[in-house]
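Dear colleague,

Thank you for sharing your sequence with our group. We've completed the structure prediction you requested, and as agreed, I am returning the results in plain text so they can be pasted directly into your records. Please verify that the sequence below matches your submission; if there's any discrepancy, let me know and we will rerun it promptly.
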Amino acid sequence: MKKPLLEFTDKGIYCSAAKVYLDPWKPVDKAIITHGHADHSRWGHKAYITHHNNVPIIKHRLGDILVTGKSWGETFNINNVTFSLHPAGHIIGSSQVRVEHKGEVWVFTGDYKTENDGISTPYEVVKCDTFITECTFGLPAFKWTPQIKVMTAINEWWATNKAEGKTSVLFGYSLGKAQRLLKYLDPEIGNIYTHGAIENMTEVLRPMLDFPKTTLITAATKKQDLIGNIVLAPPSAHGSTWIRKMVPYVTASASGWMAFRGARRRRAIDKGFVLSDHCDWDGLLSSIKATGAEKIICTHGYTDIFSRYLRELGYDAESPPTPRGGDNAEILDL
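Please find the predicted structure tokens below.
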């Protein structure tokens, strides 16, 4: 039986011909990293390869590492296997990995979305024979509202809270989601304050992107300074002593999981905005069709349900077990 070009091992997705791993979850000698989120870029590898926009991100998160940056579409060879990185549209610097060897082409998406968010390099269709796709939101119930409508609703929510003399606290993941929100918040409404985790990551990204002015919340920040303004914070800040400074405040979360009935209530959030950095159901299906791939491997999320549906459509689809696989896997704050 022919050995697959890419295989799932206990350390991650492995290309044995090149002796390199893609987004490995255990320490390895050489790793190609799709993007900077902690479940994809882990500490401990001897050498990292990633898109050059992701280099400052993972250095900020992982410290002093040996990392090589590549450009979009730049080919590089490892043991006669040809690799290249292509835009995934997930967050800033996020890549798909194209792998070619002996006339066979595989693509690993990492995390991706097809809507152009205005800050990430837009998703690019890459033709291939085998497509390894995430399916974090691989259920028909997930169908995203266009970003412009969501951001308009967020700014209207903020303006209403300001009129009522309240502080708006908006939760979003510190890398990717927070900057996407920040890009479209309306400074005409008021000032934008940030939690330290978001401020630090945004400062890493400012040389690449034009963001509105932000003010870091410190011990010297007074409650009256915040009233009527908006605070960007990571989900972990909810319920912490840090948030007490915001009283009186109204909370909201920007996440794909807000599409679930009851998600806002379970998280004790006042308002939910459905905004995801991943594909919805239609985005997944259209992306798969556009690649021309006949074999589909599903990872990250509703893998069993999604792969079963793909088989009904006639694809050769499977869902190998991974640390983030499995149905009903609510992952991070996406």
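Summary note from our side: The radius of gyration is 20 Å.

Kind regards,
the structure core
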